[in-house]
Specification:
single chain, mainly alpha, 3-stranded mixed sheet
């Protein structure tokens, strides 16, 4: 059955509003922390939890799920792969965690990978 563009637009807007409403409490919490002088540490694939804001050295480490565009499933898969397997390269992380190119780009652009090499292949030139 064909749905009208107006109906689809209303559904999309409802989903966007729901997502924004879910972020309001997180943003309020972060604003309160900043007002109290609490500092945040960036997301790090080795140190961040999947969903939990973790205290570390008097600061708070952001979870993997705090990255814009990174879903809960990807966050959980990254955490499990890093902490439960012998993942030594970004290529292994991508394959073992089932990550797509967009998620890899999110991790790269947010400098979350630390010293994790791209591959284990040597470059002679």
């Amino acid at each position: 059955m064909f749905k009208s563009p107006e109906l689809l637009k209303r559904r999309l807007n409802a989903k966007e509003k729901q997502k924004e409403q879910g972020m309001v409490s997180t943003l309020e919490l972060m604003n309160e922390c900043l007002a109290r002088g609490i500092k945040f540490l960036p997301v790090d694939v080795y140190k961040s939890e999947a969903y939990v804001f973790k205290p570390e050295d008097g600061k708070i480490r952001l979870p993997l799920s705090a990255l814009n565009g990174l879903g809960d499933t990807a966050a959980e898969n990254i955490y499990k792969t890093i902490h439960e397997t012998d993942c030594a390269t970004l290529e292994e992380l991508r394959i073992n965690a089932g990550l797509n190119k967009n998620v890899v780009e999110i991790l790269k652009s947010n400098n979350c990978l630390g010293d994790l090499p791209e591959t284990d292949q040597l470059s002679l030139f």
